[in-house]
Amino acid sequence: MGGAKKRRPEEAEEGDPAVKRLRVTIRRPKEDAARDSSHLDEWSDEEGERTSYSFLDLALKPDHRNRPVWVTPDRRVFLESFSPLYRQAYDFLIAIAEPVSRPQCVHEYMLTAHSLYAAVSIGLDADTIVKVLGKLSKVSVSKSLADFVHVTTQNCGKLKLVIQDNKFLLESPYPEVLREIVKDEVIAKAVKDKSLLARILGKGEGAEAAGGGGQEAGAAADFIVKKDVGKGKVADEITAIDLEGDEIEEIFDERGGGKAAERGGGFTHAIEILPSMIEHVKQRCLPGSGSLNYPILEEYDFQNDKKNPDLLMELKPTAKLRSYQQKSLSKMFSNGRARSGVIVLPCGAGKSLTGVAAASRVKKSIICLCLNSVSVDQWRHQFLLWTNLQEHQVTKFTAENKQMFATDSGVLVTTYSMLTHEGRRSEEASRILREMQSKEWGLMLLDEVHVVPAETFRKVIAIVKSHCKLGLTATLVREDNLIDHLNFLIGPKLYEANWLDLVSQGYLANVQCAEVWCEMTKEFFAEYLKKDNRRRRELLYVMNPIKFMTCQFLIEYHEQHRRDKVIVFSDNIFALREYAMKLRRPFIYGATAHNERTRILHHFKHSSEVNTIFISRVGDNSIDIPEANVIIQIASHAGARRQEAQRLGRILRPKQSMAIGSGNTGEFNAFFYSLVSKDTQEMFYSTKRQQFLIDQGYAFKVVTGLLDNMDKAEYDRLSYSKREDQIDLLSRILTVGEADQGDEVLATDKEQQIQEKNLLSAARRNVSSLAGLSGARGMTYMEYQTGTQPKQLSEAQKRRNKINPYKERHHLFKFRKKYQR
């Protein structure tokens, strides 16, 4: 470029490759776009919302080939996964940034306020974050990005809520911070010792009048002073990155000081808070306008908790934690206390063992919340499998089994709905619920924690009093954009594993993902295009005969030739029944009894006679079927990204052909098929659903014409291969009642209903009929003419019929009106 004059984008020639390569257009708030950047060119539209960033002046460092990261001024970070320093850089970036997309070669991350809040929670500070970014980056870290990190983390980590000796302590290593927040009316009302509060405020005012020299000493003298437990070793471990000959560029906040200058000599100061005011204090300290902007970190000093009885719980020698499981737990227990937060691990990566290991570390009473009764049984089995607890110490609280451990401490496994149910309860259930509410739990395990922000389930946080909360999930995504609420409902994200890394290490199965396009038959597509069949369109493309035959072909191929275990998913209950009954396979949906579910799953796992099961959306979450290695999806819930990932997770457990840690990924040993009717709305939904998995690095292979090369004899053997069978199926579909046309609706689907139009309340009103109420749903009364064709009447006969209207009547009724007169 040399001394050439720099051109604005609108002045550049059309198709200029340099501009295409080095200019990125994104949407940013107006105030962010106005930030000063000495090396950044910005152009805004009239509204100031659209900003183009040109990276022409970003100079590469001399040793940029040895550095694995690109740090751009718009807070995005790109990581080269083929770099020798990838592992160390990934551990650091996952602690400070949100992953956006992680394909095979280059990962993209974004620095956000929530991600920096999570970084501070494990002991990182702003200066360390900026230093390590500068150490890893191929280009210099911009001043605007450094300012953003400092401003965002300025107040994070300065306040902690600790339960010690059954006292709620609000502590901070900065006494001036405590003195500042107690001036607030809400915080002052929450302080338990009012005389201590008066002395703190009085000495603070006296110190200010004296000139401020004794302000900190006067305020700190009356606080509860303890030795600081420190930040632990995790922050030092993830920032220990060695680059030979590296000179770290230090970028400090203009205000200077740094963390070492503010800390109070290795001691922390605390004030006691009333238990009834805890929620008000947390809400008041949240960041945002009108709040104090001092987000609180929750920690549990379980080792010094003498009031709550200990649970003699140890892991068995057979319980071997993998490296990523140990790393996630180290983020939780790095300073000897238990931090509340969320751990994100892929399906099949051992979330249950991670939760059990966390419980064995706390050694207090544990309450575990699940989605359904099947998950309750599985979690109870995991506690008995991996620990030395006896059966009477691990109890269940479900609709079928209402038990509470008789000892002082134990493990209780229940469901979200059992705690949040607002209807009438039995006397036994009410007694157990009161006992749960009056007890102080050491740890609350929340399985599938992404459901907690739902309006119904978020109540469990207030119902159960727990010192520490650990959320576990594989898909930290929601369609209603409420996933950020977990930051104050549970805590920050502590750790998130990379899916493809675990596949390459042999911890997860190597899955081949395929989208199979199925042509619509002429008759079905004609009905699909009719305006009157708008409500039946979903059922028409789900029950497409070509899709039915494709599903049957895949099932028989994997059963007979590969001896695989197949799960077929369908959200549409009508399609689920039709497919399963036509192909003579067992099926499970919401109305299936718990005992029958357990029996079907048991035969599927251990019997060679049951190799395929059909299951509705009840199988999306918390069902452990490690034997399954093939998924066929025939009907899904619109464009729900999380559902796609959850269903893929049913087959992610490592298979027998894989040696753990061997890294042998050359052969696919699991298969995920998504059957899509071509030229329908299902194709749009399918593209949207795959986005989450594509961001995790998975690639979908498109398959067309799967049945084209079949022999005629084999093709004719498939169901609905004959046109008359297809017409008969179509006629049954067109007579199905509206109540049977839609998808199954579960209690956990509230956040996904945000995609549907005109859904303004939790109440659902469906158009029904007397036939549906009487049990005759789906049946239609039709008249048929029998015998010969009616004879043609002559004109004379027609005239006689007009004169005698009773001539063509039955002889029993011919003269009825005559006699009535």
From TrEMBL:
Keywords: ATP-binding, DNA damage, DNA repair, DNA-binding, Helicase, Hydrolase, Isomerase, Nucleotide-binding, Nucleus
Protein name, UniProt field: DNA 3'-5' helicase
Gene3D superfamilies, A to Z: P-loop containing nucleotide triphosphate hydrolases (3.40.50.300)
Stretches assigned to the Helicase ATP-binding domain: 332-494
Organism: Chloropicon primus
GO terms for MF: 3'-5' DNA helicase activity; ATP binding; DNA binding; hydrolase activity
GO annotation, biological process: nucleotide-excision repair; transcription initiation at RNA polymerase II promoter
Annotated compartments: Nucleus
Superkingdom, taxonomy of origin: Eukaryota
